[in-house]
Amino acid sequence: MAKGYWVVRVDVTDPEQFKIYQAFVGPFLAEHDGRFLVRGGRHTIPEGTARQRTVVVEFPTYEAALKAYDSAEYQGGVAMRENAAVVDFVVVEGYEA
């Protein structure tokens, strides 16, 4: 079964408020079998545009990634970051050869 991923591009607009969201999301992901593959870090933009940060989170399945995002608990986290960042958020199914 293919894994699921959150691919998130972020421009932080209120660093102090965003830290509250960051403190929430790590434990939340651990409880929902999510694992950071990319969490900010250096990046190069050879084509197109990007935001300040790119985050990739891996889940055991696409359905697990959707369920975690749609959960009431995570939606509370979304409210935490709402005025702290501009976000592009995609849930995507991985490829199995």
Automatic annotation (TrEMBL):
Highest taxon of the lineage: Bacteria
UniProt feature coiled coil, ranges: none
Membrane-spanning intervals of the chain: none
Gene3D superfamilies, alphabetized: 3.30.70.100
The DUF1330 domain, residue ranges: 3-95
Database matches in SUPFAM superfamilies: Dimeric alpha+beta barrel (SSF54909)
Name under which the protein is recorded: DUF1330 domain-containing protein
Origin species: Devosia riboflavina
